[in-house]
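Hi all, long-time lurker, first post. I run a small reading group and we've been trying to get comfortable going from sequence to structure in the token notation. Rather than ask abstract questions, I figured I'd post a concrete chain and ask someone more experienced to write out its structure so we can walk through it together at our next meeting. Sequence below, copied exactly:
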Amino acid sequence: MTTNTGLIVLHTTKFGENSLVVHTLSKDYGRRSFLVKGVGKKAGMSLFLPLNVLEADIVETSRSTLYTARNIVARYPLLGIRNDIFKNSMTMFMSEVLYRVVREGAYEEGLFEWCEKNILLLDAVSIDFSNFHIRFLLELSVALGFSPEARDLVPFVGDHYPVIERFMTVPFAESMLIPLNGVTRNEIAEEILRYIEFHSESAVNVNSLKVLRELFS
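-- Answer (accepted) --
Happy to help. Here is the structure in token form:
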């Protein structure tokens, strides 16, 4: 059985000489990993950068739960992201959060579409986007079904509550302009991650947050 579907790249693991296991969010399969053969011959590694949105034919087999992805193409060029070191770093962070929070085999209705929308938004945004990852984490909590109100985050964010409340009540463009220094911005990101950890019962050790801390300090 073969199914054509959309995939969002979260992480890759080398498999043998010329193959990869690509860990994805899939439109039809949810959080699922797929085997891609012939990497380096049929497709370069640039196709599998974090948060690339792909289309692929998924070949299912009864012999293994690790299905194969073939005929892979990029759905969007994402030049706004790939030509910007800051946006690239943001996608590293976002993909790592999704990889660690959403468990293999899980299917969250609408999560693929929500992620695709945010990837395209980051690709297109031209205003200051230093706060993008904070907005992303708060909206991810909603997309995963936690649906917090600002007061629900008080035990996790403490003195940063007024800023969190503002993030949750103003439009996107205005939230990007909330004045924060690098230290405060990353403290808030860590606090929201602790909230997500608590509700997802997952250990979220996001190494790429350190990169954002350096770039946006």
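A couple of things your group might point at:
The chain has nine helices and five strands.
The two ends are 50 Å apart (CA to CA).
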